[in-house]
Amino acid sequence: MTEIALRGIAKSFGETPVLNGVDLTVRPGEFLTLVGPSGCGKSTLLRILAGLEAADAGQVQIGGQDVTTVRPAARNLAMVFQSYALYPHLSVADNMLTPLKLRDLGRVENLPLIGPLVSRGKRAGLRAEVQRTAEILKIDHLLGRKPGQLSGGQRQRVALGRAMVRQPVAFLMDEPLSNLDAALRVHMRAELSQLHRSLGTTFIYVTHDQAEALTMSDRMAVMMGGDILQLGAPGAIYDDPDTVQVAGFIGSPKINLIPGEVDGAGALRILGYRVPVDMELRNTRGPVTVGLRPEHLTPAANGLAGRVVHRENLGSDVFLHVGVEGLEQPLTMRVPPAQAPAAGAPIRCAAKQDCAMIFAPGGKRLRLPQARTAVVA
Amino acid sequence: MSEATVPVAAPVVRFSTTETLKHVVLILGAVIVLLPFYVMVSYALKSPAEIMQGTGGFFGSQEPFRDEYCVKLGNPADDCLVTPIAYNFTTAFGKAPLLRYLLNGVVVTGMIFLIQVLVALPCAYALAKLRFWGREAVFGLVLFCLLIPVHAIALPLYIMLAKLGLTNTYAALVVPWTISVFGIFLMRQFFMTVPDDLIDAARMDGMTEFSIIWRVMLPTAVPALMAFAIFSVVAHWNDYFWPRIVITGDRSLFTPPLGMREFKGDVDGDNFGPMMATALVIVTPLVVAFLLAQRRFIEGITLSGMK
User: Fold this and answer.
1) B7 or A14: whose pLDDT is higher?
2) What's the CA gap between A213 and A178, in Å, rounded?
């Protein structure tokens, strides 16, 4: 069990800064996801950790040791790539054998022709290792095939197998599911989580898909513009985002971000409608952004008046897109199918008690519970 | 020829002016290209008299004739009766050490190709996949060198080899061609299509940059290498110009095209039959190799469409 730490990692490509001094500590054995929109620097951060890219500033530590200048292979990390990156000319078994051969066999033993003769015993041991890993991943019947003859899901498993045979300190995964079709992706999500539990090794997982981050990780780090905006458990980030960017990125369908205002009496209003928040916004006056997730809106007798412009039926839920006069974006709300009006019907949306998140004009969250305890105290 | 292009086997033969026109143009082109070949094969089969008089069709009559040279050597006239085919080919192999020339050709083209690959693959890899200062400038130089015709630098090259005392050696035939900018360019273009992830995966597995070249890039680049092999081997197997310059005295270093010189006009006149038989022997290996590797070859030149 090894702790991995990144200290003040900065990187720019030419004039463009990609990472601005990122600090991150990965706990031993955890499943940590780096999630963010494309171009936020998450893959670069992973590549710096792997040693494939050099940081302009900062330090990479594995198990307390500074490995910033250590070669990728010597860091004992394994990486699974988006395109799987299997050697196309080698069979599955040889693909999985390659990292072991390079690590455990000497210079002479790795030579073609002579190598197999002088290291027969060692090679048999490595092959047994490959066989065992293949059985865990249920790909032992594919060992003789070439990657070109495998389906996407099978290649994915082989790439995992190649990473697993080395028994690395941590697995680094760079969007490993994005080349799979939707059904297989959901299936592999569950399988990766199970694999993580059974191996107990650290997983560091990069994705732009917030659903993957929410479903699999122990902790997730939301990255944007070269910074980690928030680090925490998926549930905590979903329920309690620090900034409007995080709130907008995590959650599908997207959170409703509505321009509102705190009036002179300290009440939160959207277009005159009073949002039920059980607190006095003492120190805040003026315009704010109100965040309401689709499940925090409900049809009610009084609320924001609008009209259903679009209706998405997912079977278990119906998502209504409600056009409200005076708001640029339609509101999205989740309702049970039984209560869902038809498209075009008029509707009033009300916010549930104490669900609204309030963000200051700069995007910072104005925390309600803390404000309330302050009032009580 | 024409049977191959007319769609005889098509279930419904429909007349189309544009299709006919296309085929006429193609057939004309094919005839122009194939006619010298036809003459070569035909001459290699016919007797000198038939060649001179232009009789005998494609195969000639194959009637035995009297070899005057043999008679001049003082042999009885009856022993000097030969059939044209046998005469042409035995003279080709007998009067000139054609097998030796063929061996030279194999050695020279083989060495050239091997060293070209040894140089071109690391260069192409660096130009395609490594980031270093001045990479674009170096690649610009590669493109620039593609534009230099061989004949323009032949004289300086010759002087250089002569000063080093390397004329009339295998080295003179091989060394000037060992760095192929075309090879570097072709392989670089191919390596650009190899995903970076594959190289990163190899680095994570613990390969050095050189083992990445030989153990990952080389195997994936086989189609491109085949295409390059054909270009390189054809060019140097058929090259007459350069061997003619650097191999002056030593006949045992002659490459196959130089062997043709043995039959050029001497006192007793041009001897076209054996000359064309030699030509036939020289081109056959290439034609066979091309037919065997045809699919790969086409794959190789259409690399751009590959991912």
Assistant:
1) A14
2) 13
User: In chain A, what residues touch B197 (CB-CB under 8 Å)?
Assistant: 81-85
Domains of chain B, with CATH numbers?
A: 16-94 (no CATH), 98-306 (1.10.3720.10)
A81 and B205: CB-CB below 8 Å? no
Q: What does the pLDDT look like over B155-193, one tens digit per residue? A: 999 999 999 999 899 999 999 999 999 999 999 999 998
Stretch 49-68 of chain A: residues touching chain B, C-beta under 8 Å? 50-52
Distance CA(A75)–CA(A94), nearest Å, equals 22
Q: Do domains A4-239 and A253-359 have the same CATH topology?
A: no
What type of residue sits at position B215? Answer: R
List, for residues B198-245, the tens digit of each pLDDT value. 999 999 998 999 999 999 999 888 888 888 888 899 899 989 899 998
Interface contact A88, partner B, CB < 8 A: yes
Cβ burial of A259 (10 Å; 0-12, 13-18, 19+) is middle
Topology adopted by domain A4-239: Rossmann fold (3.40.50)
Q: How far apart are CA A267 and CA A274, in angstroms?
A: 7
Chain B: residue whose CA lies nearest to A102: B206
Return the domain boundaries, chain A: 4-239, 253-359
Q: Mark yes or no for CB contact A73/B205 under 8 Å.
A: yes
Structure confidence by residue, pLDDT tens digits, B247-289: 887 788 888 888 887 776 665 566 788 888 888 988 888 888 8
Identify which of B195, B206, B220 has the shortest CB distance to residue A102: B206
> How many CB atoms are closer than 10 A to CB A71?
12
Identify the residue among B205, B214, B215, B225 best suited for mutation to test binding to A, counting A beta carbons within 10 A and taking the highest: B205
**How far, in Å, CA of B10 to CA of A377, rounded?**
94
Residues of chain B contacting residue A146, judged by C-beta atoms under 8 Å apart:
none
CA B95 from chain center: how many Å? 24
Q: Does domain A253-359 have CATH number 2.40.50.140?
A: yes
Q: Is A285 within 8 Å of chain B by CB?
A: no
User: Does the beta carbon of B200 lie under 8 angstroms from any beta carbon of chain A?
Assistant: yes
Say which residue the tokens 């007459």 belong to.
B240
Taking an 8 Å cut-off on Cβ atoms, the answer to whether B219 and A47 are in contact is no
In this prediction the ipTM stands at: 0.83
Residue B136 forms contact with A (CB below 8 Å): no
Q: Which amino acid is at B100?
A: R
Interface of A with B in 290-319 (CB under 8 A): none
Q: Are B224 and B190 in contact (CB under 8 A)?
A: yes
CB contact under 8 A, B201 and A78: no
Tell me the pLDDT tens digit for each residue of B74-104: 777 777 788 888 888 888 888 778 888 999 9
- pLDDT digits over A325-377, tens only? 888 899 999 999 888 888 889 999 998 888 888 898 888 888 755 444 444 33
Q: How far apart are CA A304 and CA A270, in angstroms?
A: 8
Residues 6+ apart with CB under 8 A from A182: none
Beta-carbon separation of B205 and A52 below 8 A: no
